[in-house]
Amino acid sequence: MKKNTDILSKVAEMDILHQSEAIFLFATEGILIADKQGKIVRVNPSGAAMFGYEPEELTDLMIEDLIPNRFRQMHQTHRTNFNEHPHARSMGSGMDLYAKRKDDSEFPVEISLSPYQNSKGAYVIAFVIDISIRKVAENKLVSYKNELEVEVEERTLVLKEAIQKLEKTKDELDRALKREQELNLMKSRFITIASHEFRTPLATVLSSLSLVEKYGDLDENEKRDKHIHRIKSSVRNLTDILNDFLSLNKLEEGKVVVAPESFIINDFLEEICQQMQGIAKKGQKIDCICETTESSYEVRLDSKLIKNIIINLISNAIKFSPDDSRIQIKGSLTNRQVAISIKDEGIGIPEAEKKHVFERFYRMSNAEAIQGTGLGLSIVNQYVLLLKGKIDFISEENKGTKFIVTLPRYL
What we know:
This protein is of the alpha+beta class. The chain folds into three domains: 2-130, PAS domain (Beta-Lactamase), CATH 3.30.450.20; 137-249, Signal transduction histidine kinase, dimerisation/phosphotransfer (DHp) domain (Helix Hairpins, Orthogonal Bundle); 256-408, 2-Layer Sandwich (Heat Shock Protein 90). The chain is 52% helix and 21% strand. The protein contains nine helices and 13 strands. It has helices at 2-26, 45-51, 55-58, 69-84, 132-218, 221-252, 265-277, 303-319, 376-386, and strands at 30-35, 40-43, 89-90, 97-100, 106-118, 121-130, 261-264, 285-292, 298-301, 326-333, 337-343, 390-396, 400-408. The strands form three sheets. Strands 1, 2, 3, 4, 5 and 6 form a six-stranded antiparallel sheet that branches.
């Protein structure tokens, strides 16, 4: 009975050995067995074929013979460390491992190590998998990912550009809409101003003409001259209103072109002051002063635009100042700048309304009884900007206003 049991036990052991041998011989993974010194003692057919050798050619080679030259020294150090603390593990975790074939070509691998011992000594079984196909797939995946990122970035850039264009178009539409609203408002204000500002001067002209005829027949020259003066004044008011609207229209359509020319500024200012003295109110005196730190009064500017600026500001000073008041025009020159100030003793600008001074159609609350369009200072401001200058003012209600226009001396 015991003899039969021993026979069965030996048969079972032989079956296990045969199964282990079958696994070794027919496994698709490469299996290499090396001793503690790194010498290969056995390799399965798949392993030999993987490295391009016949199985018997690998026997007695060193493991380092199957590793690319640049990694050999490092591998010897790793093998020594593994022998000091042998345990089953994957080799080179987180690293790219490469093996070398008989023809010196390299291929990527995954390696798992399992130490074991028998009566002949300590050994290490290395399970080797060729991952070339997987690496190709991974590289393709990385390449595709990079291409996809580039494409996404390009599409994102295109989308950003499209959004920017849409935003630009929206801004342009908003500006166009705002412009349209401003034009509609301007038309409404124009109709309101025209109906009011034109009606009064025209009524004055008609009534005065009738009286001129009457007094002419009666030979009353003094009364006739008085009404002729009223007619002239009304016509001037109408002309001023029309000039304001014509100037605004030219500015809006971009038809105002700066045309610099050289001229003598002190003579220029004196001529304007004399011209404006003729339309001043009773007892108003217009003084003109021009100073320079240079030897010459010559400037290079657009004389027409400057004349419009100064006449507009002097006209306001005349209009908003009482009889017998003084208006001072002062020019100051340096080597780079021209500063022209117009100072009056008029009604001034209310403190709370100073921020509206250069707005279109804005009329100060203390000037409602005085004829005007509310466009003059807006036009002046735009002319000054065209000449690359700036305009400031100092004002106190009921004490007067001083406008200062600063321009480059040479354009």
